[in-house]
Amino acid sequence: MSAERGLAGPLPALVPLGLWLLGGLALAAAFALAAPGGLAEAAALALPLAAVLGAQCVSARYVVAAVPLGTGRSGRALATALAAAAASGLLWLVLGAGWARLLAGGGLFPGAPERFAAGAALFFSVGALGYLLAVARCHLAAAEERTRAAERQALEADLLAREAELKALKAQLDPHFLFNSLNSVSALIGSDPKAARRMCLLLAGFFRKSLGLGRQREIPLSEEIYLAETYLAIEQVRFGERLQVAMAIDEETLTLAVPPLLLQPLVENAVHHGIAQLIEGGEIRIAARRAGAELEIEVENPCDPERPPSRGTGLGLGNARARLAALFGEAGRLDVRAAPESYRVRVALPARPAAGS
């Protein structure tokens, strides 16, 4: 760890120093060509001034912050950048002339002021161009930051929209189930009051359990199967032997994660649009298996081929399909196969362990 810290510390700190030295040497070489004379004198003038220019360019970020690029502001931003670059070039020229006089006054390079004056155009051009490059770099960095901020906002908006959609879908489930359950109770009150009372007690326990699970984002499939079995036990109070249930749940799927109350509307549909329409009743088959990276759940029920069109709103299947799309995108699917005497709903979603399993 200490070796890694040693490599990560000094080396990055040397990068600006290396760039400053390279820039200063390049400036010294250009100055030696523009104003012929000794290389030592050119280096003595150019290297310190290169460091000064680097310090001046730090202010470019404030120029960009004051007049950022945007719709209808490109001309103003360009004019501001050109004016700031010209001011930076002039300031650098004045500081360079003062430095040349200091070198001459110290007796090191007596001809430094005259030589600097001969290369003044070069120094002004380099100062202005260097500042313009610094402004361009700051504009680029600001544009990248705006892009990242926009992406973050879009992602947050998408997440909030999905959360709102899921909350709305969950809010639809309880009234939908309660409506169907109350219909079941009302159907028994006249014919079998004891069975109606027993169903009310079972419903109280079922709602207590389902409301607690419904607040969670995901639950193990075992909990969802328990709710489905409890609901079917409630409906068997009304239908008796007419309602039979067959479960084929692979044990390895019981700990996999599913959205709460995903299976519930599918089982409700199987009862109310399948078994309830048949005089002799039938068997609802629920299966769950793992197929590679997917969890597959199927609910199949018999149905009357001559049944009248359903008067329901189709909320159950539509709700389940919308929740899968909101949670998993294309990885969550709900397919329906309607045959004359059977109806099968197949759900596929990513297979992953539930939290805490």
How would you concisely characterize the structure shown here?
By secondary structure, the chain is α+β, with helices and mostly antiparallel strands. 65% of the residues lie in helices and 13% in strands. It folds into two domains: 145 residues, no CATH class; 161 residues, Heat Shock Protein 90, CATH 3.30.565.
Describe the structure.
This protein is an alpha+beta fold. It has two domains: 145 residues, no CATH class; 161 residues, Histidine kinase-like ATPase, C-terminal domain (Heat Shock Protein 90). It is built from eleven helices and seven strands. Strands 2-4-5-7-6 form a five-stranded mixed beta sheet, covered by helices on one side. Strands 1-3 form a two-stranded antiparallel ribbon. Strand 6 and strand 7 form a beta hairpin. Helix 7 runs antiparallel to helix 11. The two termini are 36 Å apart.
Task: Describe how the helices and strands are arranged.
Blueprint: H1 2-8, H2 10-34, H3 39-57, H4 60-66, H5 74-105, H6 112-118, H7 120-189, H8 193-214, E1 219-220, H9 221-239, E2 243-249, E3 257-258, H10 264-272, E4 282-291, E5 294-302, H11 315-328, E6 333-338, E7 342-350
Parallel strand pairs: 2-4
Antiparallel strand pairs: 1-3, 4-5, 5-7, 6-7
